Amino acid sequence: MTEQQQPTDHSTEQPQAANEHADTVELSGEQAIIAKLEDELASTKAQLAEQQDLMLRIKAEAENIRRRASMDVEKAHKFALEKFAGDLLPVVDNLERALGFINREDEALKGVVEGVELTLKSFLDTVAKFGVNQIDPQGQPFNPELHQAMSIQPSADVAPNTVTFVMQKGYELNGRLLRPAMVGVSKAAE
User: Fold this and answer.
1) What is the C-alpha to C-alpha distance for residues 79 and 89, in angstroms, rounded to an integer?
2) pLDDT tens-place string over residues 86-97
3) Is the full-model pTM beyond 0.70?
4) Region Disordered: which residues (predicted)?
5) What is the SS3 assignment for 136?
6) Which helix (H) or strand (E) holds 160?
7) Which among 89, 157, 179, 183 counts the fewest CB atoms within 10 Å?
8) How far apart are CA 47 and CA 52, in angstroms?
């Protein structure tokens, strides 16, 4: 047979075209599912990142709250005695005044002087155990954070801004000022 006479089989061509069309439809359906799954995966990853960020923030906030509460408890323990210690300061002042007015030369008062000195020392040692310390700035440079200047006097004997006398000693409780020392301060002689 000649080329023109050869029979053509159209029955096999049409099913092949239908198959290709079905494959294309099937591929586009799979691609749509894959695209949908990729979108869901991206959305889930974004949600996971948000949740992790939120968890880290909550954890940091909880740590800050715990640290703040711990500091508050520590401060409460350290400074719980502040009012009580402040109320005891006049007792120390009175014992020091008593020692200042007693005639130390009088033999009859030697026992009293010794008793008041021991009482004062014992009292200061006891309050020191609880963090109360005396500020006695005699001869030190004036510090406005710890001292209250009651008078300023010219002096050629000491450097300017030096505490020349202490009217009333100051006190601090665990580093916090309870009462400033009342002092006299020197200034340059004119």
Assistant:
1) 16
2) 899 999 999 999
3) no
4) 1-25
5) coil
6) none
7) 157
8) 9
